[in-house]
Each structure stands twice: as C-alpha cells, then as structure tokens.
C-alpha cells in the first residue's frame, strides 16, 4: 500500500504506481515484500533493494533464475524503475506511461530518492529504537503481527 493511503487514506493513480513498483521489485529479486531481509538493521524488501542499489551491489538483488531467461542488463534496468515507483512522495513517482516507456526503451532512467517505508535514523530523538525479535517488530509500542497457518 502506498504511504499516502496508509497515513491519510488517500488513494490515487500514483498509488497504483507504488504497487506496481513493489511487484516489479518482488519479481526481480524473487523475494516477497512481507518479510525482513538483513538483520542489522532489519529491512523490508524496499529498504533491502535500496541499500544494495545505493552501494552499487545491484547484481546481488537479481534472482539468479532471471539471468537464465534474459540478460542481467534487463533485470538491472528494472531496479531503479521499481525504486522510482515506490518513492515516498507521490509527486516523485512516474506515471505508468513513463514506466512503460522506461521499460521498453533505452532512455536514461532518473536517479531515485530514498523510497518510502525506510526506517530512518532520527537525530532529533536517538532514544527511539527498532526492536526485532523472532519476526516481531515494534517501534514505540506499535506492533505488526504476521498471522500464519499451523
């Protein structure tokens, strides 16, 4: 779900762009967006992809099975496009027309900013901490519970 829908209950065309970006990152990475990746700090799929892309380790993101189907260059092209789609501010996200154009052509892809739902270090309040134990996450006593089958 897009940040503007989660926080303000506002849905727009750019909310669909956000969802498409998440799906694109899931396909390229072969990972789901409902888990944490990396332990310190714990990262969502969006944060995990952002950190590796920012560190020029984009090849580590790509699901190896995709390299058998097409060139790594095609898979790597999808990462910044996916990150553009999941920008926190809806105005920073491209339109779906622009996304299709970027995917189907050889144009230069704009550099994405830090995406939505990233845990940022707070310089104003260093006492706020993120605790993750056994898949449970809590920030300021707000919890997310994942329900599963037995």
Automatic annotation (TrEMBL):
PROSITE patterns: PROTEIN_KINASE_DOM (PS50011). It comes from the Eukaryota. Keywords: ATP-binding, Kinase, Nucleotide-binding, Serine/threonine-protein kinase, Transferase. Residues 1-117 form the Protein kinase domain. It holds the Pfam family DUF3403. GO terms for cellular component: plasma membrane. The keyword Disulfide bond does not apply. GO terms for molecular function: ATP binding; protein serine/threonine kinase activity. This is Protein kinase domain-containing protein. It comes from Salix viminalis.
